Amino acid sequence: MTSRGPGSSAGDWAPNRPIPSEARLVQEYGLARTTVRRTIRLLVDEGVLFVVPQRGTYVAEPGAQGVAPGQA
């Protein structure tokens, strides 16, 4: 995974769309689940992703600073 997330630089992850599950990322990239979780947490902290409780993790709008849609 890069610092901006897998596929994000290629446009595979569109803003306000959910990212794949941790299990899928583990399988797709051959990483440990701990690594995937840590990377997702880092990307949330950087504002690249945001979490909607009981819904999932989503790609933030560029420059959104981790604010979920409708909460700005």
From TrEMBL:
Signal peptide residues on this chain, from the entry's feature table: none
Keywords: DNA-binding, Transcription, Transcription regulation
PROSITE patterns cross-referenced by the UniProt entry: HTH_GNTR (PS50949)
Record domain HTH gntR-type: where: 1-62
Domain of life, source organism: Bacteria
Protein name in the entry: GntR family transcriptional regulator
SMART domains for the chain: HTH_GNTR
Organism: Nocardiopsis suaedae
